[in-house]
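User: Fold this; tokens only.

Assistant: Input:
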Amino acid sequence: MYGIINQAIQELVTTNFGEDKWIQVLKISGVKEAFFLSNESYDDEVTYQLARAASEVLHLSLEEVLHTFGEFWVLHTGNKKYGSLMIAGGNNLKEFIVNLPVFHDRVSLIYSNLRQPEFEVSDLEENSIQLHYYSHRIGLTEFVRGLLFGLSKLYQTSSTIELLNCRDKGHDHDVFKISW
């Protein structure tokens, strides 16, 4: 993953829990880098180590850490780093989710070696949509759910997010139903 992900984890921890907690996360994770370059690619395991260590230090489940990080990514990192792309994504939650595949195509222009997930939408209805999440990375279901909650907050839309299919339960991808 790119360093911007690891920077955002650091910012989440320091902003919400303090610098001392971040230092503990680094120590427990065993990650040697104390500083991450946003456009530099890092082994995925570095990010996973940071998330697991944050779970331990913050006394939260890994799922809670990933969910919180997903929300933080949208509301803080996404707005700060990709503001114009976020605005171009749509005027409301439904439009943004429909345009999510295009959003990721645009992000890939910024990060040339990005191994990004794929998103597809289906069952588009007036008050709901299904989002299909395909990724070569495992264990990020709750991160994606957090992203969706973050988008709901960004667009000030009360929503429910139901996990219909999950890779952890033998499916080839995750499927979320977002209702508003």
